[in-house]
Write a structure and sequence with these properties.
Pfam families: CSD. It is a single chain. It contains no helices and five strands. The protein is an all-beta fold. It has a five-stranded antiparallel sheet with strand order 3-2-1-4-5, with no helix packed on it. A hairpin with a 4-residue loop joins strand 1 (5-13) and strand 2 (18-23). The radius of gyration is 11 Å and the shape is globular.
Length: 72
């Protein structure tokens, strides 16, 4: 299992369901709404500037965030 990383949401488009996270170290990483972990069946979204924790996997078009959780 990959190590968890921390970063900040650079932007997230609710209509399209994706955005990018600025990693603490390394290049920005793509995030899809399906990768956002919620409590229950809540609406999966992120807000610009929000701090998050995630793992990075290799997607079809490059690195992407998975198992994204908001740091409270």
């Amino acid at each position: 299992m990959s190590a968890r990383e921390k970063g900040t949401v650079k932007w997230f488009n609710n209509d399209k369901g994706f955005g990018f996270i600025q990693r603490e170290q390394g290049a920005d990483v793509f995030v899809h709404f399906r990768a956002i972990m919620t409590k229950g069946d809540g609406y999966r979204t992120l807000v610009e500037g929000q701090r998050v924790e995630f793992t990075v996997t290799q997607g079809q078009k490059g690195p992407q965030a998975e198992n994204v959780t908001v740091i409270e």
